[in-house]
Design goal:
By secondary structure, the chain is an alpha/beta fold. The protein folds into 2 domains: about 140 residues, Aspartate Aminotransferase, domain 1, CATH 3.90.1150.10; about 280 residues, 3-Layer(aba) Sandwich (Aspartate Aminotransferase, domain 2). About 40% of the residues lie in helices and about 15% in strands. The chain has 15 helices and 15 strands. The strands form 3 sheets. A 7-stranded mixed β-sheet has the order 4-10-9-8-7-5-6, with helices on both faces. A 4-stranded mixed β-sheet has the order 1-2-3-13. It has a 4-stranded antiparallel β-sheet with strand order 11-12-15-14, covered by helices on one side.
C-alpha cells in the first residue's frame, strides 16, 4: 500500500509539473509529450529521481552546485538564520549582519579595489543592475551620451528584458520576443574553432582586436558606457577567448574610458581554479565583476555586483538629493547571505579553488579530451571544470549536422538513460560538475558519456549518416 501511495504521489507531482509549472526555456512540443525529469533528492555529485534512479550531475545543477549536494553546514546556517531573522528590509538605511559580513568577504576575495557590493537575486538581476549603475555613473560625470553597451555574439548575460537583449547567443533570440536595439552593440564571438569566412585561425585573434577597435571608433567612445564580457563564454558553449584578445580589448576600454565589466556569473567561485578568473587567470583588472551561481552553490538564490571604489566615489558624491533608485525586495536577503557565507567558508577550508586549479581541473579536461576519438567530436574546449564537446558531421570540414538531428539533445537523452546528466546546447554538450567531484567520478562521467555518444553514432549510421 505504501508503494502504491508513493507511486500515486509521484504521478501527481509529474502531472502537476506538466500542467502548471511554466519552466524557463520551455520547449513546448517535447514538454507537452514528455514532461519533466522530476528530481527528488541529491547527495554529493549525484541526484535521484522519484523512482530512486541515480544520476551523476555532470552540469552541477546549472553551473552552480560548486560544493556539492547535501552540505548540512549550509542547510543548518539557512535554518538558523531563518529562525533568527528571516527577512530584513534592505532599502536606504536598513541592513542586516549576514549581508554586511558577506559584502566585506566579497571585497576581500575580489581583485583590486572592488570594495563595494550590490546584492541581487541572481545573475540576470546583477547584470541588469550593473547596466543601470554604468548609466548612472556616466550621468553623474555629466557624460549622459555614454549609453551603449558592447557585448559579444555568442554571449549570455541573463533573461531580464535588458540582459536578454545583451545576450548574443543566437539560439536564445526567439523572433516572437522584442529586444532593445538602441543600446546594445555586438562584436564577434571569440571562437577560434569557427572564425569568420576568409579569416584564418592564425589571423583571428588580431582580427577580433581590430574589430573591437573599429567598433569603438564607429560608435564613438563618447557614446559607449561599458563592455560586458564573460572571461569564458558559458552558455554559449564554453568558448575560451584568446588571451591577447582579452588583454588588448581591456586596454582599449581603458584608453577610451569605457567601463570593463567581467560577467563572472559562471567563472566565479572556483570553477576555473580561482575565486575570480579576471585577474588570476586572464591578467586583467575589471572595473566591476558580476557574479552569482557558485556564490551560494545553488543553496539559495543570490547575485552580486562588485564595484570599484573609483566608480562608487563618483556616484556617492554626485549630489545630496540624488538616490540610486535600483534594488530589489530581496537584495541582501539575510538567509541567502548566510548560505553564501557558509558556502565560502567551506570552499576556503577545503581549498576548492586550489584543488580545481592543481588537481581535479586538469584531470577532468584530460579525461574529457579522450573523447576526441569519437566520430562526431570535432573539438573539445574549456578550462578546469568547464568543458564543451563540439559535435560535427565532418571533422575535417567542421560541417555541422543538420539542426533537425538535434545531436546534443540526443546525446543528453542517451546519457540520462545511463544515469548521467549533461547539458545539450544545439550541437554541443556542456559539462560543469561540482568542484568536489573525485577522479573516480570523473572516470565514471566520461565512461557514460562515451557510451552515450557511441549509441547515438550507431543510430545516426542506421539513419544513413556517413560518420
Amino acid at each position: 500500500m505504501a508503494v502504491e501511495t508513493q507511486n500515486n504521489f509521484d504521478n501527481v507531482v509529474w502531472e502537476s509539473d506538466r500542467r502548471h509549472f511554466f519552466h524557463p526555456w520551455t520547449h513546448f512540443d517535447s514538454f507537452k509529450d514528455e514532461g519533466s525529469l522530476i528530481l527528488t533528492r541529491a547527495e554529493g555529485v549525484y541526484t535521484y529521481d522519484a523512482s530512486g534512479k541515480r544520476y551523476l550531475d555532470g552540469v552541477g545543477g546549472l553551473w552552480c552546485m560548486n560544493v556539492g549536494y547535501g552540505r548540512d553546514e549550509i542547510v543548518d546556517a539557512i535554518a538558523e538564520q531563518a529562525r533568527e531573522l528571516a527577512y530584513a528590509n534592505p532599502f536606504v538605511d536598513v541592513g542586516n549582519a549576514p549581508a554586511a559580513l558577506l559584502s566585506a568577504k566579497l571585497a576581500e576575495l575580489s581583485p583590486g579595489d572592488l570594495n563595494r557590493v550590490m546584492l541581487t537575486c541572481g545573475g540576470s538581476t546583477a547584470n541588469d543592475s550593473m547596466v543601470r549603475l554604468a548609466h548612472y555613473y556616466w550621468g553623474c560625470k555629466n557624460q549622459k551620451s555614454r549609453k551603449k553597451i558592447i557585448t559579444r555574439r555568442g554571449s549570455y548575460h541573463g533573461s531580464t528584458y535588458l540582459t536578454q537583449s545583451m545576450t548574443g547567443k543566437p539560439a536564445d533570440r526567439m523572433p516572437e520576443f522584442h529586444y532593445d536595439t538602441d543600446l546594445i552593440v555586438y562584436v564577434s564571438e571569440p571562437n577560434s574553432y569557427r572564425p569568420p569566412e576568409g579569416v584564418s585561425e592564425a589571423d583571428f585573434e588580431q582580427w577580433l582586436i581590430d574589430e573591437f577597435a573599429e567598433t569603438i571608433e564607429r560608435e564613438g567612445p563618447e557614446n559607449i558606457a561599458a563592455h560586458f564580457a564573460e572571461p569564458i563564454l558559458g552558455a554559449g558553449g564554453v568558448v575560451v577567448p584568446p588571451r591577447r584578445y582579452i588583454t588588448e580589448t581591456h586596454e582599449l576600454c581603458r584608453q577610451h574610458g569605457i567601463l570593463y565589466v567581467a560577467d563572472e556569473v559562471v567563472t566565479g567561485f572556483g570553477r576555473v581554479g580561482a575565486w575570480f578568473a579576471s585577474l588570476d587567470v586572464f591578467g586583467i583588472q575589471p572595473d566591476a565583476i558580476v557574479t552569482a551561481k557558485g556564490i551560494t552553490s545553488g543553496y539559495q538564490p543570490l547575485g552580486a555586483v562588485l564595484v570599484s571604489d573609483a566608480i562608487y566615489e563618483v556616484v556617492a558624491e554626485a549630489g545630496y538629493d540624488r538616490l540610486f533608485t535600483n534594488g530589489y525586495t530581496y537584495s541582501g536577503h539575510p538567509v541567502a547571505c548566510a548560505a553564501a557565507l557558509k558556502n565560502i567558508e567551506i570552499m576556503e577550508r577545503e581549498n576548492l579553488p586550489g584543488r580545481v586549479r592543481d588537481d581535479i581541473g586538469p584531470y577532468f579536461m584530460e579525461q574529457v579530451g579522450t573523447l576526441k576519438d569519437m566520430p562526431t567530436v570535432g573539438d573539445i574546449r574549456g578550462m578546469h571544470l568547464m568543458a564543451c564537446v563540439v559535435n560535427v558531421a565532418d571533422k575535417e570540414t567542421r560541417e555541422e549536422l543538420p539542426a533537425e538531428v538535434n545531436i546534443g539533445k540526443r546525446i543528453s537523452n542517451a546519457a540520462e538513460e545511463l544515469g548521467l546528466l549533461v547539458r545539450p546546447v544545439g550541437n554541443l554538450n556542456v559539462l560543469s560538475p561540482p568542484l568536489t567531484i573525485t577522479r573516480t567520478e570523473v572516470d565514471e562521467l566520461v565512461s557514460m558519456l562515451r557510451q552515450s555518444m557511441d549509441r547515438v553514432c550507431g543510430d545516426l549510421r542506421q539513419e544513413g549518416f556517413d560518420l
